[in-house]
Design goal:
Elements (H helix, E strand, L loop, with lengths): L2 E7 L5 H10 L3 E4 H7 L6 H10 L12 H9 L2 H28 L4 E5 L3 H4 L11 E6 L2 H12 L3 H9 L4 H6 L3 E4 L4 H20 L1
Parallel strand pairs: 1-3, 1-4, 2-3, 4-5
Length: 206
């Protein structure tokens, strides 16, 4: 039996680094953000629907999606963000389900599904039953804020607004089966992943 685990955490908490380390250990990583880009790539039904709703202002010169322009529009408009979520979430769920099914067909011990907004969108719903454990990547909010400002080259006010728009640190930790602390260096982070990988493979065997 293939087990399916969620990897989640706040913005700039270190989810990408953790998922990369799992992938290096041979684990199938199913990243919701990557899948979200795939369902709106050039020529997709998702991109066509977005263009019809928002207009061509959300397109780049080559016809692909201008993700920043779209993000700026929905960031301050709840109704448009709701419409976008209603369009994309089912598409993303279907592709992630296909990836989990492929892992089961191959007899893989477990998968990691990276879902940044798991608490906000899936926790407490029927869909949560698709996953056996929740792994939270946790970081001190000060470190998270500085990493976000550096990563996005943004000011402190916008960075704080983005953090506040997500579930709080305590809310994410309240649903965690496992926690990886990302307050040190990459070597410490990698060792925590190695330890969890051993634990997860043992769970799959049992």
């Amino acid at each position: 039996m293939t087990l399916h685990f969620v990897l989640t955490g706040g913005v700039a908490s270190g989810k990408s680094a953790v998922s990369r380390f799992f992938a290096e250990l041979g684990v199938r990583v199913i990243d919701a953000d990557i899948v979200a880009r795939e369902v709106v790539e050039l020529g997709s039904e998702g991109l066509q629907a977005i263009t019809q709703y928002f207009g061509e202002d959300v397109l780049l010169d080559d016809g692909s999606l201008d993700r920043k322009a779209l993000r700026d529009i929905v960031f301050s408009d709840d109704s448009k963000r709701h419409w976008l979520n209603q369009l994309l979430h089912p598409m993303i769920r279907d592709k992630m389900l296909q990836a989990r099914s492929a892992a089961e067909s191959c007899g893989e011990p477990y998968t990691i599904s990276v879902i940044p907004l798991y608490f906000e969108t899936i926790h407490g719903t029927d869909e949560a039953q698709n996953y056996q454990r929740v792994l939270v990547v946790d970081a001190d909010e000060g470190k998270q804020l500085s990493r976000l400002m550096q990563r996005d080259d943004t000011d402190i006010h916008r960075a704080k607004a983005l953090m506040v728009s997500q579930a709080s640190r305590s809310e994410r930790l309240s649903i965690a089966d496992d926690v990886i602390a990302n307050n040190s260096d990459l070597q410490s982070l990698k060792q925590q992943v190695i330890n969890l990988d051993k634990h997860y493979r043992e769970l799959a065997r049992s």
